[in-house]
Amino acid sequence: MANNKIIKVLEYLSLFMVLSFFLFHNIYIVLLGLILSIFTINKNTINSYIEHNQNKNIEEHEENADDEKTKELIKDESVLSLVEKIEELGFIPSKDDNCAV
């Protein structure tokens, strides 16, 4: 209920700021009133944009965590495959295929 009253006050405040030009002849108050009115009109759009960006950041963070886990698993698997190669061949294979021991 109080939130609704605050919104109404902001709407009327922006209107009074724009109309105050006739009394005070100050353009800065009018510009501030215009900015405030544009904000109150597009408040839902701004909030949905912020929520969308927050959700996107959370999803990217989860994907990065999953990528790090898979990289660790791949490293573990590559070490195991090297150990298995050593067990099968009986010696440590070199990187070059042309080298013969």
Features:
single chain, 101 residues, 83% helix, mainly alpha
Outline of the structure:
This protein is mainly α. 83% of the residues lie in helices and 0% in strands. 2% of the residues are buried.
Describe the structure.
With 101 residues, the protein is mainly alpha-helical. The protein has 2 domains: 1-41; 43-89. 83% of the residues lie in helices and 0% in strands. The protein starts with a helix and ends in a 12-residue tail after the last helix. 2% of the residues are buried. The mean pLDDT is 79.
What's the SSE blueprint?
Elements: H1 2-19, H2 21-24, H3 27-41, H4 43-89
Tell me the structural class. mainly alpha
Dominant shape: rod-shaped
Biggest pleated-sheet summary: none
Strand tally, please? 0
Order of helices and strands: HHHH
Distance between the termini: 84 Å
What is the percentage of strand-forming residues? Answer: under 5%
**pLDDT under 50 segments (min length 5)?**
none
Total of helices: 4
| Helix proportion | over 70%
Q: Give the overall pLDDT as a whole number.
A: 79
Number of domains in the coordinates?
2
Computed over alpha carbons, the radius of gyration is 32 Å
